[in-house]
Amino acid sequence: MSPAPGPVRINIHPSFDVLAATTAARLITKLLDVQNERGEATVVLTGGTVGIATLKAVVDSPACSAVDWSKVNFWWGDERFLPVGDPESNAKQARDVLLDKIGVDPARVHPMGSPDQFADTQAAAADYARQLAVAAAAEHPGTEEENLDTTAIVWNALPRFDVLLLGIGPDGHIASLFPEMAGIRVRNELVVGVDNSPKPPPSRVSLTLPTINSAQEVWMVVSGSDKAGAVGLALAGANPVQVPAAGPAGRVKTLWLIDQDAAAKVPENLFLGGAS
Ligand SMILES: O=C(O)[C@H](O)[C@@H](O)[C@H](O)[C@H](O)COP(=O)(O)O
């Protein structure tokens, strides 16, 4: 039985640039706090314009070097199923703007599989699920590797995600989970392959909603008036199958980090007012 999710907080920012810079500042501070407490920290990255801009803002921040990046674990919420190093790959974009500049430990960086390594997205998804289970076992000593369960969502069958970043598409998709499609309905798998993504490229690998919701904190980082409808519906409590952005719920907290354009249709009763 999964624990009830934590509270939702909405922070509205005046512009894309301020959103990226403040989200970067929050991430640096969060990783520092977790490292002080636990010696290491784990973040799940997202692709997309705002997601990558946030990573660039991290490396541009004077506080960037305060984090011991060699003790940060990096996972991805989704990935385009493209050859390693393809410029459209979420991992390649993250490496270009951040990971190749901050002294990460390669053993702690976990990109999703590519067509160079796997025959199809389902095989890449199964491999990622196994990587997650291996990491979980390492966090829960005593779990024998041959007993790893990558099919059931058992809350301690996943590594601890301190912060999981998500963008939102204009259609309300998150990661590579799209409205009314199979992936958003999956409840008994950690990771899924997607081969008919409405957002190009068509083939992708994605964490499932239950895996996303195993995170301590989920941060929805959203900019632009084209997302206002999806943000408004999600915060108004839409059904996640129709509006996947309504589904994410961190175990401790769900942060909506949005700019004014994306906030245009936030239900009045939820609007906490003021820029962050
Ligand atoms: O692989 C991807 O494309 C992303 O993971 C995807 O979920 C993205 O975050 C949203 O589509 C928002 O993208 P934009 O910020 O570019 O609109």
From TrEMBL:
Keyword entries, A-Z: Hydrolase
Pfam families in alphabetical order: Glucosamine_iso
Known catalytic reactions: 6-phospho-D-glucono-1,5-lactone + H2O = 6-phospho-D-gluconate + H(+)
Known pathway: Carbohydrate degradation; pentose phosphate pathway; D-ribulose 5-phosphate from D-glucose 6-phosphate (oxidative stage): step 2/3
InterPro entries: 6-phosphogluconolactonase_DevB (IPR005900), 6PGL (IPR039104), Glc/Gal-6P_isomerase (IPR006148), NagB/RpiA_transferase-like (IPR037171)
Glucosamine/galactosamine-6-phosphate isomerase domain span: 17-256
GO biological process: carbohydrate metabolic process; pentose-phosphate shunt
Cited Gene3D superfamilies: 3.40.50.1360
GO MF, one annotated term: 6-phosphogluconolactonase activity
EC number(s) stated in the UniProt entry for this protein: 3.1.1.31
Function: Hydrolysis of 6-phosphogluconolactone to 6-phosphogluconate.
Protein family membership: Belongs to the glucosamine/galactosamine-6-phosphate isomerase family. 6-phosphogluconolactonase subfamily.
Protein name listed in UniProt: 6-phosphogluconolactonase
Organism whose genome encodes this protein: Psychromicrobium silvestre
Gene behind the chain: pgl
